[in-house]
Amino acid sequence: MLHAWSSYEKFAWGFDELQPQTKDGVDTFGGLGATVVDALDTLFIMGLNEQFQRARQWVATSLDFNKDYDASVFETTIRILGGLLSAHDLSGDKMFLEKATELADRLLPAWNTPSGINLNRVNLATGQAHNANGKYTVLAEVGTEQLEFIALSQRTNDTKYQQKVENVIKKLQKSFPVDGLVPINIDPKTGRPSPSIITFGGGGDSFYEYLLKAWVQGNKTEAVNFYREMWETSIVKGLQSLIRRTTPSSYAYICEKDGNTLIDTMDELACFVPGMLALGSPGFAPRQAKRILSLAEELARTCYNFYQMTKTKLAGENYGFNPGKDISLNTPYNILRPETVESLFYLWRLTGNNTYREFAWNIFQAFEKHSKLKTGYVGLEDVNTGEQDNLQQSFFLAETLKYLYLLFSPPSVIPLDQWVFNTEAHPLKIVTRTTGPNNSG
């Protein structure tokens, strides 16, 4: 973490991300200091106090949201808003909450649609919102703001943030499929899904994650039960219908679905699922809980194999499954993604099984061997040739390194009965919710 952070400070301070090969910075998120904000809580948790103070100072004096920039509502929420809220919850510093509130206010116009389903781009200066790729907002883009906006309402006692994002879930609940699997294209005019792919990979992923986590965040009370109910439907009736096993080695994997057709392909992004299942398993009756945890363990083995089967022992982005051939690499790049170590973290916390630590240690060693430069960390263009790219992703500091650190820390560091991680690994305090959808308790 120190190496990644110091390299960023030295070559790219104030920019969104570091380009280690060219030793400069690049604004990938409109110049919001994404790496600074994404790394705040990791620095805090690791006790890197001087670094944290320098980052805090930058946020207080240089972080400016008044930018004529069409921000991704999803990315800005999970990285910047989530990072600020987490820094606030960990440090108690009100400045972070003030910044978070200002940012959320600039994002809110995205929800001003006929259905209340948000658009995916909003200009931070003008408040003009639109959808970047035509008519639809993607499922993950409408279902991955709940934790952050609910947390903001709880901390400011202003219900408007929660109302906007909870209304989205209520809207989706009205047309929620029997199997809980929602196609990824959502029409903001009608609030209904349009025929499109169903996936636990990119485009779908964190919608399902946040159904579970909004229930955890509200402390599993009556007020947030509808989240858990929707989540259970999408797991028990939905996810389980997408599980197939390879031949000859019987690796479990998650298919995608188009109409009624299952597609034998899986993103590394979907490797968050074992962790999600582990986190959600205790909420089931004992026999069901055991089955769900067992599926989580099987899928984690598959995800670990995504890493082990390449020459660098780092995973590619997407895999295919053909009869008799087990697993094949479809998309060969690696961008320092965290999903597999995230799942290993949850499985280690919930089972105490040290195998998960060993898996994570091997993945860490592969990053050290193939992604570390003198000037920071880079992804790989190809996990078999080892050819490197030129970007140190902000989520490498926010997520990948944080989950690895927590895997080798006592469970009392960020205990899961007091904290819930957003999808960018920013821990938010669990606050009991006692009232229904339109009040923040």
Automatic annotation (TrEMBL):
Keyword Cell membrane included in the entry's annotation: no
EC number per UniProt: 3.2.1.-
Chain sites annotated for binding Ca(2+): 423
Superkingdom in the source lineage: Eukaryota
Disulfide bonds: 271-303
A Gene Ontology molecular function term of the record: calcium ion binding
Pathway membership: Protein modification; protein glycosylation
Catalytic reactions on record: N(4)-(alpha-D-Man-(1->2)-alpha-D-Man-(1->2)-alpha-D-Man-(1->3)-[alpha-D-Man-(1->2)-alpha-D-Man-(1->3)-[alpha-D-Man-(1->2)-alpha-D-Man-(1->6)]-alpha-D-Man-(1->6)]-beta-D-Man-(1->4)-beta-D-GlcNAc-(1->4)-beta-D-GlcNAc)-L-asparaginyl-[protein] (N-glucan mannose isomer 9A1,2,3B1,2,3) + 4 H2O = N(4)-(alpha-D-Man-(1->3)-[alpha-D-Man-(1->3)-[alpha-D-Man-(1->6)]-alpha-D-Man-(1->6)]-beta-D-Man-(1->4)-beta-D-GlcNAc-(1->4)-beta-D-GlcNAc)-L-asparaginyl-[protein] (N-glucan mannose isomer 5A1,2) + 4 beta-D-mannose; N(4)-(alpha-D-Man-(1->2)-alpha-D-Man-(1->2)-alpha-D-Man-(1->3)-[alpha-D-Man-(1->3)-[alpha-D-Man-(1->2)-alpha-D-Man-(1->6)]-alpha-D-Man-(1->6)]-beta-D-Man-(1->4)-beta-D-GlcNAc-(1->4)-beta-D-GlcNAc)-L-asparaginyl-[protein] (N-glucan mannose isomer 8A1,2,3B1,3) + 3 H2O = N(4)-(alpha-D-Man-(1->3)-[alpha-D-Man-(1->3)-[alpha-D-Man-(1->6)]-alpha-D-Man-(1->6)]-beta-D-Man-(1->4)-beta-D-GlcNAc-(1->4)-beta-D-GlcNAc)-L-asparaginyl-[protein] (N-glucan mannose isomer 5A1,2) + 3 beta-D-mannose
Pfam families attached to this UniProt entry: Glyco_hydro_47
Any GO CC annotation of this UniProt entry: Golgi membrane
InterPro entries in the record: 6hp_glycosidase-like_sf, Glyco_hydro_47, Glycosyl_Hydrolase_47, Seven-hairpin_glycosidases
Gene3D superfamilies linked: 1.50.10.10
Keywords assigned by UniProt, alphabetized: Calcium, Disulfide bond, Glycoprotein, Glycosidase, Golgi apparatus, Hydrolase, Membrane, Metal-binding, Signal-anchor, Transmembrane, Transmembrane helix
Cofactor: Ca(2+)
Enzyme class: hydrolase
Membrane-protein topology: Single-pass type II membrane protein
Compartment(s): Golgi apparatus membrane
Keyword Disulfide bond included in the entry's annotation: yes
Active site per database record: 75, 205, 317, 339
Gene Ontology biological process terms, A to Z: carbohydrate metabolic process; glycoprotein metabolic process
Homology family: Belongs to the glycosyl hydrolase 47 family.
Identification of the protein by name: alpha-1,2-Mannosidase
Organism: Punica granatum
